[in-house]
Amino acid sequence: MKLLLGWAINAVALILLPYIVPAVQIRGFGTALVVALVIGLLNTFIRPVLFILTLPITVLTLGLFTLVLNGMMFWMASRFIDGFAIAGFWWAVLAALIYSIISWAISSLLIGGEEKRIEPPQR
């Protein structure tokens, strides 16, 4: 259930993205669901390999190159899916950053209350 909720949250974040970044276009909610799925699959299978291959530059840039990797995943998804377009690579980096912030904010509002609390023992 949590996986489906996360998928829907990411799709909503993608729907909100063109209102903030004008270089991003998305056709509708169905396309957003497909894009969220493709980005998730790219992040699961391709991103770890790229992260290991680019580890030296990531260390040299103190982790900032990770933003470029996120943008690359976003840009690749825009190349695979009709109805989802980004004007250029650096727009994809900006869009990936803002997408992450929107997704984090919505997730923390909806899912954030499920933290486990340790209660002190009763006497």
Question: Please, could you describe this protein's structure?
Answer:
The protein has 123 residues and is mainly alpha-helical. The chain has a domain at 41-106. It is 71% helix and 5% strand. The chain has 6 helices and 2 strands; from the N terminus they run αβααααβα. The chain has helices spanning 2-20, 29-45, 47-53, 55-60, 65-80, 89-110; strands at residues 24-26, 84-86. The longest helix has 22 residues, at 89-110.
Q: Summary?
A:
This protein is mostly helical and 123 residues long. The chain contains six helices and two strands, in the order αβααααβα.
Biggest sheet: strands, sense, closure? 2 strands, antiparallel
Termini Cα gap: 37 Å
Fraction in helix: over 70%
Order of helices and strands: HEHHHHEH
Count of extended strands: 2
Low-confidence spans: pLDDT under 50, at least 5 residues?
A: none
- Contiguous helical run count: 6
Which structural class fits the helix and strand makeup? Answer: mainly alpha
Main-sheet strand order equals: 1-2
Features:
6 helices; globular; two-stranded antiparallel sheet; about 120 residues; 2 strands; about 70% helix; mainly alpha
